[in-house]
Amino acid sequence: MKGTFSELELLILRQRSQEALRLIAVRGDLHTSVAIGYVRSADDRLELDPDKRVREALHLVSRVTSSQS
Questions:
Q1: For residue 54, how many other CB atoms are within 10 A of its CB?
Q2: Where are the domains of the chain?
Q3: What torsion do the CA atoms of 5, 7, 9, 12 make, to the nearest 10 degrees?
Q4: How far apart are the first and last CA of the chain?
Q5: pTM
Q6: What is the pLDDT of residue 57?
Q7: Residue 26 CB: number of other CB atoms within 10 A?
Q8: What is the sign of the dihedral through the CA atoms of 6, 11, 14 and 20?
Q9: Do 50 and 39 touch, CB atoms closer than 8 A?
């Protein structure tokens, strides 16, 4: 078992990582990726992608999947 992390060590690392992410979010510095079809505006709001081809492709996917249900 030499060279491997014990379950306790992994748990501690996971907890530290989650706490670090939480503190970054509280500070307002956590920036996650935006879903396809949306863009982040200058004032940090989510808006639909201005690219017409992207919007049309998403509408096509939505129509195809809803017609298959």
A1: 15
A2: 7-68
A3: 150
A4: 50
A5: 0.48
A6: 92
A7: 9
A8: negative
A9: yes
